Amino acid sequence: MKKRAVSAVLAVVLAASLMTGCGGSGNSAPETQAAGGSQETEAQAETEKPDDGAGTAAEQGGDFKDEIHIVIDSNPSSLDIAVTTEDVAANVAQGTIFEQLVAIDDQYMPVPELAEKVDISDDTTEYTYHLRQGVKFHNGEEMKADDVVASMNRWIEAASNAQAMVGDARFEKVDDYTVKIKMAAPCAYLNELIAGLGNRAAIMPKSVIDAADPDTGLVKEYIGTGPYMLDEWEQDQYIKLVKFEDYQPYGTDGDYSAWVGYKHAYTPTVYYDIVVDSSTVIAGLQTGEYDAAFDINYDNIDMFRNDENFKVEQTLGEEAMLIFNKKEGMATDEKIRQAVQAALNCDDIMMAAYSRPEFYELYGSYMFKEQSDWYTEEGSEYFNENDPERAKQLYDESEYSGETFKVLVASDSPDFFSMAVVVQNQLEAAGIPCELLTYDWSTFVDIRNNEPDQYNAFITSFAPKVIPTMNLYLSSDWAGWCTDERIQEGLVSINTDTSKDNAVATWVDLQKYMLETSVPVVKFGSTIRFMVCKSGFDGLGFFERPLVVNARLYE
Amino acid sequence: MKKYIIRRLLALIPTLFVVSIVIFSIIHMTPGDPAAMILGDKASVEDIEALREAMGLNDPLPVQYINWVTGVFHGDLGQSVFIDEPMTQILKEYMAPTFSLTIYAMIISTVLAIPLGVIAAKKRGSFTDQGISFLSMIGISMPSFLLGLLLILGFAVQLRWFPVGGYKTIAKDGLIAHIRYLTLPALALGFMEAALIIRLTRSSVLEVLASDYVKMAKAKGVSEFALIMKHAFKNALIPILTVLGQTFMALLAGAAIVESVFNIPGIGRLTVNSVNRRDYEVIQAVVLMVSLINVVMCLAVDLLYGLVDPRVRLED
Amino acid sequence: MTDLNEIRKRLLKEQRQLLVHKFLHNRLAVTGGTITFVMLFLALAAPLLAAQGPLEMVVSDRLSAPSAAHIFGTDTYGRDVFSRILYGARVSMTIGLFVGLITMVAGMCLGLLASWFKTLDEVLMRICDGLNAIPSTLLAIAFMAALGASITNVIVSLSIVSIPRMARIARSAALVVKEQTYIEAIAAAGAGPFHIIFRHIAPNILSPVIVQASYVFANAIITEAALSFLGVGVPVPQPSWGNILYEGKDVIYNAWWMIVYPAVFTALTVFGLNLFGDGLRDLLDPHTS
């Protein structure tokens, strides 16, 4: 999870305590923000003054720095976030360089960003987006319907998830400032998809899209509408963004939540320093070279908590999981999957990866606790069962008894790797022979996708999703191949059900069935992610990534 | 002499041909491909396959190889999938830190090693000599990445005199920062070479000291210090100089791991990263270039040897 | 012929006794040999010496400093570092020995054949030149990525990387022997090339080959540690010195013992092997030193 965090984030209600911003250097500010669900927004929306933090800092008479340095842990392969699902690319470019028609707020609800408003037909088959006028791209052109149509259709082509939802439908231009899409079937969650899918629906000029590399399909220039422009990308060293002077903020001053709202771009220059090695990050924070870093080694969190020069912020992390290969081999047998689930002690697995109980949560629900609509404890008795005897019994009953269970894991994601080591240990202890197949990331992905005969399960993690059907691990075409008919039927019925209550009831049943019988995956637990930043920061949010658009660093 | 050089240069062609075949085969044998890396973790199998096709990764390997080699002959080293710059520019950019590090390491190792070697030779058999020999023995046994880790632990984590890692350019951050960031890696890298040079200096100086003409000079009453500086050292310098050429190559190769330990964006890191993300043409270009430098350096060393020591016959 | 053979045997025996005698009087070689022997012993006796299995984890005990219970402390999974180092010695020694042996046998065969057959020589030496031109660490990394991380693949990769140099050394030694008159005599007597190569030339080039093999051994240990440190060597959770360092690097602020102890063991082993190699060289091959 740490290295390759996962794509789409979309959940419903999240605990406010899990996602405070780096708001406020003043003494009173943190409490206000921790209490309010939507951080600064409610408290300061009415006033012209940006926010409390700025007020106190301004009273202190300090000046803020004109450049800040945020650490990212790898060099993105591209910043074309419409095509790549890499998180590190979105961490740099989403909301800064690129903006979208709609983006999510801290309640994980889609809110218009480049659209003024969205009209949705009653049967949810037709969406009409009214664009904001006068929005400028970094190359000086004005954003118009042609650009949006080109960008959105390119996004649909790039994201099979989106294709699955809209089918053959594509965006069309109505007039220069209006676009629409009309689907054949109802599509209740299109905005959620646009707002938070792994392939980000970034709006770029049509001219840039037309000039994309014909081989890779990647754009050659990174031109968006956001408050920051790409100035310089020194490969493997840093990515430098500078303020886009013609940027026009939207919404109300002071009203900013998660990824949407009024963006000041106070700090003229933002550096994303690429630092692969975690001990270098820590040293760099201490010497003041870097101003903020996230997903640092959990063993070092305390060191920064006890240091008054820093503050530590947290946000909801992801679900760490073992995904069974249900296409070939021993894990096609329910009994084997149940045996593995029964054998595991999730506490130890999570502890090995995240070092202390306070850094993770253990519960069986597939949906996050904070997603009150979908959260259910049905079937939880099978979670974290830690019953080696029952496991061994199930294993012995299986026709695959005696075979070695093979877990595929990428050696360059330390968290997953730690989990795999403990899983192997526990399975062996239960009398289930287990082997780890460790490969570098690229080989891992290749084998996972193309050689299902090689392994029985793999480990990865998933960011929260707004609806259960968006969980990739339940998909029948993604690795793991969840083809269980009852699950697939359940998912279709959730997607097409017009009544949410019915949909939830279906999900509750489905989760019980999955935990008890089908076991497509074994959830280990949910993580919490941390960002360490200098205590002089004001307005630096942390919601899946550091949010720099309103950040100021006071000396 | 001319004929010899031409013959040696011609011999480079099959060598580089072998290099190109070896490296091409290895990396295309490797599972995984850049398409999956571009699209990221959660991309679907079909999307990845479509991109593979579009990128020409599904062409038969011989076709891909011939395309690449033809390109190289036309001066086109290929195109990185991930870095949107001409290959020569990429090589230049990533070579800079590596060269800096290598040269710094070489300075450290020579400055440290040659005097120690001379002293050891001068005080042959003494406690000092044994101490120096022991030190060099340890140096030879201490792989650079191990020493690097220990240096980080001592001087960066505990004492905090130097940064744990990272790299600063002279242009942007100044010479002092540049040197400060490269000191620990250069020490780690140079130590083993220093140890080798100490041994070599010691034995060369001893050999020269034992030669007749030095004995003669000594008999004539030339002072020992002058003797060592003027005669022995000067003559011992020949093999040392030629070894420095090899040292440079050894350092360049060792830099791959030291760069990973210290997080320096050099050619070694580029290779490791490119292997990880299957950026085929970058790996090919880097390996070809490093191998070329390698063989040319060997040739240069041989020539130099022939020039400074007429006893060496180049014709065979 | 029998007489000759007997004389040769007797000479060889005497030579061997002399070597043993000389060896014992070579301080370096004895020290190096002792260190190597101790490491081999630790590797073999690991199950007896380690209080705990190398994979046994007590996660709640993670990252505890050296104490009576864990004399080298525990790692990120609460495994005993001392026990992992002992078992790691097994991995290192196995890899070193196999790489040394494979390189010696394969390199010698190739070198011998190349020294005798002209066409083969051209081809083999060009290939060796090519392989030698690529920095060995980079080549090993590329091989490991292609083959996948496993102990066998580490052995294969490191052998491939070190064979060319060995072949060159064997070849040049063989070329010298080939020029000797007695070889010409045997050839004139009608002996086949393979008979000459393996019966008469091979025994005479053993010295430089064995000396080189001891360096290959040491080098294999270093490179294995480096590859594992980069995460492409011995697959975790198997204990190897490089793996312990790899995991230790991430917690360098919290657990110095995960860096210092494996580093000391690696360096000491290589130190021992180098001394041993130097001693061997002084004994077997006095002119090259």
Per-chain topology:
The complex is a heterotrimer of chains A (555), B (316) and C (289).
Chain A: H1 29-35, H2 40-44, H3 52-59, E1 67-72, H4 87-93, E2 102-104, E3 110-112, E4 115-120, E5 126-131, H5 145-158, H6 160-166, E6 171-175, E7 178-182, H7 190-196, H8 206-210, E8 228-234, E9 238-243, E10 256-257, E11 260-261, E12 269-274, H9 278-286, E13 292-294, H10 301-305, E14 310-324, H11 334-343, H12 346-354, E15 360-361, H13 388-397, E16 405-410, H14 414-429, E17 434-439, H15 441-450, E18 457-462, H16 485-496, H17 500-518, E19 521-534, E20 537-538, E21 541-542, E22 546-547, E23 552-553
Parallel strand pairs in A: 1-12, 1-13, 16-17, 16-18
Antiparallel strand pairs in A: 2-3, 4-5, 5-7, 6-7, 8-9, 9-12, 10-11, 13-19, 14-18, 14-19, 15-19, 20-23, 21-22
Helix pairs in contact in A: 5-6, 11-13, 12-14, 16-17
Chain B: H1 2-29, H2 34-39, H3 45-54, H4 61-73, H5 87-122, H6 127-141, H7 144-158, H8 170-209, H9 212-219, H10 224-262, H11 267-277, H12 280-308
Chain C: H1 2-24, H2 27-44, H3 46-49, H4 81-116, H5 118-133, H6 136-147, H7 151-178, H8 181-188, H9 193-201, H10 206-229, H11 241-250, H12 257-284
Helix pairs in contact in C: 2-4, 2-12, 4-5, 4-7, 4-9, 4-10, 4-12, 5-7, 6-7, 7-10, 10-11, 10-12, 11-12
The CATH architecture classification of chain C is Orthogonal Bundle
For the record, the CATH class of chain C is Mainly Alpha
Count, helices of chain C: 12
End-to-end separation of chain B in angstroms reads: 11 Å
Helix content range of chain C: over 70%
CATH topology (fold) name of chain B: MetI-like fold
Distance between the termini of chain C: 36 Å
- Please state the second-level CATH architecture of chain B: Orthogonal Bundle
Shape of chain B: globular
| Envelope shape of chain C | elongated
Question: What kind of assembly state do the chains in view correspond to?
Answer: heterotrimer
What is the top-level CATH class of chain B? Mainly Alpha
How would you describe what is shown here?
The complex is a heterotrimer of chains A (555), B (316) and C (289). With 555 residues, chain A is α+β, with helices and mostly antiparallel strands. Chain A has helices at residues 29-35, 40-44, 52-59, 87-93, 145-158, 160-166, 190-196, 206-210, 278-286, 301-305, 334-343, 346-354, 388-397, 414-429, 441-450, 485-496, 500-518, and strands at 67-72, 102-104, 110-112, 115-120, 126-131, 171-175, 178-182, 228-234, 238-243, 256-257, 260-261, 269-274, 292-294, 310-324, 360-361, 405-410, 434-439, 457-462, 521-534, 537-538, 541-542, 546-547, 552-553. Chain A has two domains: 6-41 and 65-309 and 535-553, Periplasmic binding protein-like II (D-Maltodextrin-Binding Protein, domain 2, 3-Layer(aba) Sandwich); 316-528, Dipeptide-binding Protein, Domain 3 (Dipeptide-binding Protein, domain 3, Roll), CATH 3.10.105.10. In chain A, a hairpin with a 2-residue loop joins β6 and β7 (178-182). Chain A is globular. Chain B contains twelve helices and no strands. Chain C has one domain (2-284): MetI-like fold (Orthogonal Bundle), CATH 1.10.3720. In chain C, α11 (241-250) runs antiparallel to α12. The model of chain C has no long low-confidence stretch (mean pLDDT 85).
